[in-house]
Amino acid sequence: MSATGIGASVKRREDIRFITGKGRYTDDINRPGQAHAYFVRSPHAHATIDSIDVSAAKASPGVVAVYTGADTSADKLGAHFVGWTIHSKDGSVMKTPPTPALAVGKVFYVGDQVAVVIADTYAQAREAAEKIVVNYGVLPASVDPRTTAGPSAPLLHETVPNNTCFNFAIGEKGATDAAFAAAAHVTKIDLVNNRLIPNAMEPRAAVADYDEGTDVQTLYTTSQNPHVARLVLSAFAGVAPEHKLRVVAPDVGGGFGSKIYQYVEETVCVWAAKKINRPVKWAADRTESFLSDAHGRDHVSHVELALDASGTITGLRGHTIANLGGYGSLFGTVTPTFLHAILLSGQYAIPNIYYELDAVFTNTAPVDAYRGAGRPEATFIVERLLEVAARETGRDPAELRRHNFIKSFPHQTPVALCYDAGDYVLALDKALAAADYAGVAKRKAASAAKGKLRGVGFSAFIEACGIAPSQVVGSLGCGVGLWESAEVRVNPVGTVEVLTGSHSHGQGHETTMAQLVSERLGIPIENVAIVHGDTDKVQFGMGTYGSRSGSVGMSAIFKALDKVEAKARKIAGQVLEASEQDIEFKDGKFTVKGTDKSIDFGAVAFNAYVAHKFNGQEIEPGLKEGAFWDPTNFTFPAGVHICEVEIDPETGVTKIERYTAVDDFGRLINPMIVHGQVHGGIAQGIGQALLEGAVYNSDGQLMTASYMDYAMPRADDLPSFDIDTIETLCPSNPLGMKGCGEAGAIAAPPAVINAITDAVGHENVTMPATPQVVWRAAQQAMMKRAAE
Amino acid sequence: MIHVSMTVNGKAVSAHVDPRTLLVQFLRENLRLTGTHVGCDTSQCGACVVHVDGRALKSCTTLAASCQGAHVTTIEGLAHDGHLHPMQQAFQDNHGLQCGFCTPGMIMTSVDMVNRLGTDLDEATIRHNLEGNICRCTGYHNIVKSVKQGAHDMGAHNHAKAAE
Questions:
Q1: How far apart, in whole angstroms, are the C-alpha atoms of residue A654 and residue A657?
Q2: A641: Cβ–Cβ under 8 A, 6 or more apart, which residues?
Q3: For residues A741 and A720, is the Cβ–Cβ distance under 8 A?
Q4: 10 Å Cβ neighbour count for A716?
């Protein structure tokens, strides 16, 4: 392994601009003559819009234009598109709401975009916005997903009866019910997967520009996928045809899924720039981000696990209500179905599974994919069931898992997925050793002696990522393919540009992709540039989310490199006057086998472009190759996380004493970056378990709309982590990679809750497990013990 | 409109601004120093931290007018003669950043931490003193390592300079 090749922890070259303040985020971009947009938002969760008077706003100083839903719908502008069609268990197709840009006729959540003011300065736009008079007919809000489908709940959308999008089911009901009827033990639990708000540190922003001379609209925006943005804006939102629309995602400050979608604000900005023939700039403030970025999770579940007398799992079943929010959203329907239910086998050989999920609308912000997207919800279900079942049947939670692990591959689960490779026992053994599981009893006694409660919790996660094989997802209702593109352009003097359809918003692609190219072509890593984020430069790509840029994005680069090597070999043969078959390529040099006749890669590149030494009709001049890689399967990273906590029963405060993770991500390109992804994911998972939770009151007001109220994990809320990996190569891509970006967020919540419930001796610990929640559970346990 | 003048990264600057102009707006919009970022509206995220007269300060909650005559250092002013500040280098060495948005404020807070508390910082101290800076990407694990190394290297750098 070279110091800059595959497997090396190469320091990131993109860091230089970030640590010196020279990053170029959307809000750093300014266009001459730009105007500023400010959005007027509904203060009500559910209301009719009876009238809007914009006359005073239009007359306000500096105002260029004021638009409402009447204006955007007259131009047929849309938003809130759903990209994945789901069918209910009765075969009927899902019901989705209308897709206005600015609200038309009704508002559906606090923060819903009602009007936009565009003025010379941001302050002028904001002042003018306060002069807009909106007469709302306030309606009762339907906020609780548990009651929103019921007969007495207010109806949100006329075209969506019972506020229900679909009633989904997967698995075999009859066989599963039979397994439960025959079970020696059945574990039953009720779980809530708490609603989260992604909170990337960079708020959403857009700078839209219009060139009247060429009729081209340009949008700089905080997107994880600029080509998908362009496709949606053009084909669905109705902004402009693709060839007249350029989307640029410059440096983007975090996404976690929330920057996949095309929101109302960005859509209206790019539309408005053409209408007023001036650039339009907009950035959300943090409150607006809280209100209108897509939220995550929000499932209410009842789940059950059946065991036989020897502790073998014979069945899993359950029912979940999934909150979709007030409108449809791009991946909002697939997140609780084909990114969720198909993981309910976990790492275990479960023969029978049946699961129902009802997706419902409420007067809250739209819900869509957020780091893990459906897999944290599945893992929470499976890993809480395993832990509770272990306790109820007097078994060690590690050993119950080991007994039920899948031990041979490929393994077909009852919920569609076929796992291709893994070693779950190895990860468990390594995690137990690293976490010093053998010493837990002693540490528990030491804590008890100090009057504290110590607990240990497990989470054996598996997920399906490397989104995704196009035919598979197409058959499941996806509206697009999920391949990735790459173009390798070799320049005449041997430097290389790689244009990737992936987009880095923190993942380090400029370094990791360069490592791959540098090693393969045998050229210094400084000679490789990675280009991403601009639809004018890069051919169509699907972007970065779903832990796909390694396994799918880099595979596309790998395939393009195959083609570059093949053509270079041909040219080398011509130059060295040898047959192509006799050419070897190693360490950047093409050599005629058995001789010392050689030519290095850079010289081959030069020859390719001057085209003097070969027939340009037989071999085309130039050295530039592209590839589109469509994965043949998901990748299945898996691992074991072990969390150890110490709780003060008098205050309910939980301290994480140690957190151990052993994960299988297949081949690692850059271990430093992989560990960083795991750290970040674990932090978000711990955040979900201990701190975070979006709270709406019964009127649909978001009570947690700032960092005063929504508890983000801070440095002193978290420990350092003990991270290790094992490697079972992924068989379905040329590099053997499995996705690592979401693993921590998927695995951590049940590890933490399992540890707390172990410590307090009571299962009634909801997320976030605040000191009040933990204290109550500890009290309940003490009272129960006293009563016995 | 009022007239403000101050020194930013060693350069004298002045402008006529709306009296409500925040220091962060003055830096980003008037001076086009966009390294200092706005991440929240309740003064908690720390993306806006700069140094004013040698101390860390949240520029989103400071009026430009209140910095009249002050010496302001932003992230753009940390490197000297083309050499990265030891804290900047430490963040790159330890993968202490991913998306980079919180990073300028994180680095400015960290340098101030060392100025206040010395060059030999333990994990608990570092974590406690980063309470005013939120990162969503890194989980803080590598930020802590970065600050520890940066603090140590600031000490070594100072010794080297003193020895000259």
A1: 9
A2: A431, A458, A459, A460, A461, A659, A660, A661, A662, A682, A747, A748, A751
A3: no
A4: 16
* Domain B86-163 fold: DNA polymerase; domain 1 (1.10.150)
Domain boundaries, chain B: 2-77, 86-163
Domain boundaries along the sequence of chain A: 418-463+634-788, 483-629
d(C-alpha A549, C-alpha A510), whole Å: 12
| Number of neighbours of residue B29 by Cβ within 10 angstroms | 17
Give the tens place of pLDDT for each residue, B57-112. 999 999 999 999 999 999 999 998 889 999 999 999 999 999 999 999 999 999 99
- Residue A788: band (very low, low, confident or very high) from pLDDT cuts 50, 70, 90: confident
> What distances in angstroms separate CA A103 from CA A73, A258, A259, one per listed residue?
9, 21, 21
Three-state DSSP at A667 gives: coil
Strands A583-586 and A528-531: unpaired
Closest CA to B20 of A113, A736, A121, A454: A121
Query: Would you say residue B164 has pLDDT above 90?
Result: no
ω into A410 cis (within 30 of 0): yes
Measured distance CA(B50)–CA(B59) in Å, rounded: 6
E strands along A526-675, which residues?
Answer: 528-531, 583-586, 589-592, 598-600, 624-629, 638-647, 654-664
Best residue in A11, A13, A20 for a mutation probing chain B (most B CBs within 10 Å): A20
Residues of A in contact with B142 (CB under 8 A): 676, 679
Q: What angle do CA A79, A80, A81 make, to 5 degrees?
A: 95
Name which of B39, B124, B127 is nearest A201 (Cβ-Cβ). Answer: B39
Residue B101 touches chain A, beta carbons under 8 Å: yes
Whether cis (ω within 30° of 0) applies to the bond prior to A734 is no
Architecture of A418-463+634-788 per CATH?
A: 2-Layer Sandwich (3.30)
Q: What is the pTM of this model?
A: 0.97
Beta bridge partners of B14: B5
Q: Phi first, then psi: what are they for A737, rounded to 5°? A: -90, 150
Residue A494: what pLDDT? 85
Q: How far is CA A38 from CA A52, A165, A290, A464, A618, in A?
A: 16, 32, 16, 40, 59
Interface test with A, best of B76, B134, B141 (most A CBs within 10 A): B141
User: A418-463+634-788 and A483-629 share one CATH topology?
Assistant: yes
Q: Is the pLDDT of residue A101 over 80?
A: yes
Q: Between chains, do B84 and A20 touch, taking CB under 8 Å as contact?
A: yes
Segment (H or E) for A176: helix A173-181
- Output phi, psi for A700, to 5 deg: 80, 15
CA atoms within 13 A on the CB side of A139: 23
**How does pLDDT run across A212-247, given as a tens digit for each residue?**
999 999 999 999 999 999 999 999 999 999 999 999
CATH of domain A483-629: 3.30.365.10
Q: Rounded to whole angstroms, how far apart are CA atoms A26 and A468? A: 29
* pLDDT single digits (tens) A269-290: 999 999 999 999 999 999 999 9
Instruction: State which amino acid sits at residue A157.
Output: H
Considering the domain B2-77, what is its CATH architecture? Roll (3.10)
Q: Give ipTM to 2 decimals.
A: 0.98
CB A380 within 8 A of CB A191: yes
The C-alpha of B140 sits at a distance from chain A's nearest C-alpha, in angstroms, of 6
